[in-house]
Amino acid sequence: MAEESDKQGDRIAKVIARAGLASRREAEAWIAAGRVSVNGQVIASPALNVKPRDRITVDGKPLPRRTRTRLFRYHKPRGLVTTHSDPEGRPTIFRALPKHLPRLISIGRLDMNTEGLLLLTNDGGLARVLELPATGWLRRYRVRVYGRVTQQTLDGLSKGVTVDGVHYGPIEAILERQLEANAWLELGLREGKNREVRRVMESIGLKVSRLIRISYGPFELADLGDGAAEEVPTAELKKALGPELVKQADADFEAPLESEPQDRVDARGGKTSHRHPEVRARDAREPRRMTGKAPGPSSFATRQRRGPQDDGERERRIHRKGRARRSDRSGGPRPSRPRPK
């Protein structure tokens, strides 16, 4: 099957998505905008199959080589939009993510005022498969609503509901607690259409005041801190997906990890090292081999051989010998001082 795919090639949008640059839909939009070239020629249609030997560039930059499929749990705060850039200038999750993470795309979206679990991946193929309603993964939410409701009313949502001509599938709804003016509910749904929870709640006379996603399929928010991101270990991810979804997504768990530079500049301008946890574990198990060369002097010994710092005296001597006398702030020459005899 793999050999047949290599002979026929894969759709260009699929290859871009698999590299983790964007979803297939976003890749198709990039192609329509003339941002993608194959073998030096700008393409205008996604109806093109490419092979491994083809040279693909996006905005003039070569397509990065494919790396291991990775998945991250992210606790999305309220007030962020789920997009890489927003035309209205609103803050986005991708600007708020920890800087050491690789380039990621979201699996589905959460509204600006929705918080909780958002799955992120570097593999567009995996994102596409997990977003599909056919995959059937349950999304669970805790919801605070204004108004009063009974469990009997909520049970009616189990058959699905149509709102303004849009049909929403079955929803599992449990009344956790009814207070004086509002109530807490737990909802489970498998479609995840745009603003589905809010619209369905409005159809039964309730207004959502807080919406928190607590799980997506087998992955849970648990005690992940607000704004924090945590990678799902490769073995756990592979087991959660199962052979069928791994095949559908064309996920690759044998490819090398992200080849990030050892030194990255942090927000304060200093350098910091970010290596993948599995790489750190491997280095701990397998110490680096000796090259046969004699070890060099330690940094402490090197510093000991240096002379004491001169606090700028050498620079001042050079200035007196080799540079013309500077004028003072009035614009005239500085007054000369008699030399001691």
| Element order: H for helix, E for strand | HEHHEEEEEEHEEHEHEEEEHEEEHEEHHH
State the separation between the terminal residues, measured CA to CA. Answer: 96 Å
What name is given to the CATH topology of the largest domain?
A: Alpha-Beta Plaits
Radius of gyration: 29 Å
* Average pLDDT level: 78
Q: Uncertain regions: pLDDT < 50 for 5+ in a row?
A: 1-6, 260-275, 286-296, 298-304, 306-332
Query: What percent of the residues sit in helical stretches (DSSP H or I)?
Result: 25-40%
Q: Write out the CATH superfamily name of the largest domain.
A: Pseudouridine synthase I, catalytic domain, N-terminal subdomain
Strand content: 15-25%
What is the count of β-strands? 19
Query: Tell me, what's the shape?
Result: elongated
- CATH architectural type of the largest domain: 2-Layer Sandwich
| Largest beta-sheet details | 9 strands, mixed
The number of helices is 11
**The top level CATH class name of the largest domain:** Alpha Beta
Instruction: Give the structural class.
Output: alpha+beta
Q: Could you say how many structural domains there are in total? A: 3
Features:
341 residues; alpha+beta; Structural Genomics Hypothetical 15.5 Kd Protein In mrcA-pckA Intergenic Region, Chain A; Alpha-Beta Plaits; nine-stranded mixed beta sheet; four-stranded antiparallel beta sheet; 11 helices; 26% helix; disordered N terminus
Question: Can you characterise this structure?
Answer:
This protein is α+β, with helices and mostly antiparallel strands. The protein is built from 11 helices and 19 strands. Helices cover 26% and strands 23% of the residues. The strands form 5 sheets. Strands 7, 8, 9, 10, 13, 14, 15, 16 and 17 form a 9-stranded mixed β-sheet that branches. A 4-stranded antiparallel β-sheet has the order 3-2-5-6, with no helix packed on it. Helix 2 (12-18) packs across helix 3 (24-32) and helix 5 packs across helix 8.
